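Predict the assembly for these two chains.
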Amino acid sequence: MRYFPDSLMRLLTELQKLPGVGPKTAQRLAFHLLKEPAEDARRLGAAIGTIHEKLTNCSICGSITELHDDPCRICEHPQRDHKVICVVEDADDVSIFERTGTYTGMYHVLGGLLSALNHVRPEDLRIPELVNRLGDGEVTEVIFALSPSVEGSATVTYMLQHLTPHDIRVTQIAYGVPIGSDLDYVDDVTLSQALEARNEVT
Amino acid sequence: MRYFPDSLMRLLTELQKLPGVGPKTAQRLAFHLLKEPAEDARRLGAAIGTIHEKLTNCSICGSITELHDDPCRICEHPQRDHKVICVVEDADDVSIFERTGTYTGMYHVLGGLLSALNHVRPEDLRIPELVNRLGDGEVTEVIFALSPSVEGSATVTYMLQHLTPHDIRVTQIAYGVPIGSDLDYVDDVTLSQALEARNEVT
């Protein structure tokens, strides 16, 4: 027995391809769209359908930018510190650091982390592009801001050999107990890591 | 500080109008769409954008149907029982009953429940359309399948006065302990209701 007309079935199928959207959520979203004015559905449909035509990856750092705005606003910003590059896994990580409002340097999107399990090899990452940016000697520091996972560590270790020939400082963000958290709920690995990476109290 | 290019911001704004989609989910969906092939985004965008042009409410029962398929397949089905009408709140409730595969009668979508709080008055519901369907004397039973809430009961009570002049049986689905549930976890109101509506064991 078919429960839905064809057009609705097609919409449900497409919606279910989104991450975290199962049959129930898809149905809720579809009926919501049907209840709201047609203009809303048209606007959402257009925003989704044209997103690939309007956006691209910045040719320098790899973050998301408007097609007519490449290199991106961060790479082109005259007030930002062009001497520091923060290396992140994905384009959406850029927004996480931008949100803090405290980082004023450049970014470099790797496009993934080395992973034997997921078949991600060095040539799949934007490593040559990073090395290229170090060529003119303007950059003085590269900060790794990758996830504290096996893949993250492997990626940093692998990339070090490409960075050491250049006369730059290579750092990574501090891993430890999150600010505002309760020690009772912090996992053992994080605690051990935080103990090991302890600092002088000044 | 702006974190995203304009086109991406527009997409995030539109996505956040969907029920249950906050800033984080919107961002996850948007970056998923950007990572997947452009064809996927175009297909989803088209399915969403054209949904109002392709679907309509059945002119008889009010459920969702293709524009070129009105009255809907259920209302037009020769094998279904045209003498019984199941009254539901919304168009998506039809699919819930169709999924069971045991109901073979007709439906009538009210389009809401009476509610002083949400300013839903009798004239906002498809009550005259239901009374109209009873006119030719073919229908012998009307089953109310509304949510067991204050609004649901109020709607049934109000509608009874419109149905009693017709010589039909008026019933409502059984409310009680769900099949397969553990009595420990059933709330008190449901238990009291189940006790009161007890049946003879035959």
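Strands of chain B lie at 55-57, 64-66, 81-88, 105-109, 141-144, 169-172. The mean pLDDT of chain B is 91.
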